[in-house]
Amino acid sequence: MAGRLEGKVAIVTGAGRGIGKAIAEAFVAEGARVVVNDVDADAANLLVKELGDGAVAENSAIGTVAAAGSVVGTALDTWGQVDILVNNAGILRDKMTHKMSEEDFDQVIQVHLKGTWACGREVIKLWRPLAKEETAEGRPHRKIVNVTSPSGLLGAVGQSNYAAAKMGIVGLTKTWAKELGSLSINVNAVSPTALTAMTEPLIQDPAQKAVRLARFALGRYGDPEEIAPSFVFLASKESDYITGQILCVDGGLVI
Ligand SMILES: NC(=O)c1ccc[n+]([C@@H]2O[C@H](COP(=O)([O-])OP(=O)(O)OC[C@H]3O[C@@H](n4cnc5c(N)ncnc54)[C@H](O)[C@@H]3O)[C@@H](O)[C@H]2O)c1
After folding, report:
1. How many other CB atoms are found less than 10 A from the CB of residue 23?
2. CATH dotted code for 9-249
3. Is the CB of 55 under 6 A from ligand 1?
4. Angle, helix 160-180 to helix 115-133, in steps of 10 degrees
5. Is the model's pLDDT at 1 over the cut of 90?
6. Smallest CA separation from ligand 1 atom 19, residue
7. How open is the CA angle 56-59-60, to the nearest 5 degrees?
8. Catalytic: which of 27, 105, 117, 162?
């Protein structure tokens, strides 16, 4: 099946590599045009070169209202619309709580939680008046797909900053689903696990790797390409009757 996102414009934050890159590639393959945001300008530009006319790069550091305005502004300036927002950009600053600095805490909360809130707020401000002008029958569903984590569902040692941010993103997801459902705006989240630059360092030590992989029912980390189809689904018409949900695409880590 192809063309499930034909005519749609999507924003994917943190799309220069890893899961975000796989999402941007899958969206373009399904006919969407994509704003490839990443603070790593080289990575974003490289991906846009690969994707061609269906993509444009944007290099703001997600985490502020100004950055959110710039990402949405890029979509509007380039294609005049936004239909899908994927809040994927993320960082880790792991430390046990007693060793964690204020900066480690603030940075992680800013990129994940405030970044998701700010980008969500920007598209919500854009979409509300549009949706109100449309009739319920004629109105297309608009989609926000957030990214949480097993850490945000279960908690995780050494990740008080990250787990709090990702749990906060669950709160944003459920709240926005309730606030915006009457305007046909669907808000869901994916809780992924994949082998990327973020997770590779966690399995360098063979003993630690064995302990980690034993927690997955399927016994392994996925590839980013195995995560991306869930985002296509949650961005497409096929999920118009799904909102406020957390979809675990994690090889059976959270059961
Ligand atoms: N990989 C996993 O197993 C896993 C598990 C749970 C959740 N996640 C979440 O999935 C998302 C993607 O993770 P990944 O594994 O692909 O990580 P990754 O480190 O491979 O990629 C993250 C991308 O985000 C970009 N980025 C970081 N801060 C940014 C900012 N402020 N503004 C814009 N871009 C920024 C980076 O440059 C990078 O290209 C993150 O939100 C992460 O927390 C990943």
Report:
1. 32
2. 3.40.50.720
3. no
4. 10
5. no
6. 198
7. 130
8. 162
The predicted-structure confidence for 27-57, as pLDDT tens digits, reads as follows 999 999 999 999 999 999 999 999 999 999 9
Q: Distance from the CA of 34 to the center of ligand 1, in angstroms?
A: 17
Structure token pair of residue 46 = 């490289």
What's the predicted TM-score (pTM) here? 0.98
pLDDT over 90 at 249, yes or no = yes
The CB-side HSE value for 164 (13 A sphere, CA atoms) comes to: 16
CA-angle at 159, arms to 153 and 164, nearest 5°: 50
Ligand 1 pocket: which of 198, 215, 220, 254 to mutate (most atoms <8 Å of CB)?
198
What per-residue confidence (pLDDT) applies to 53? Answer: 94
Q: Give the pairing of strands 33-37 and 55-58.
A: parallel
- Is position 221 annotated as part of the catalytic site? no
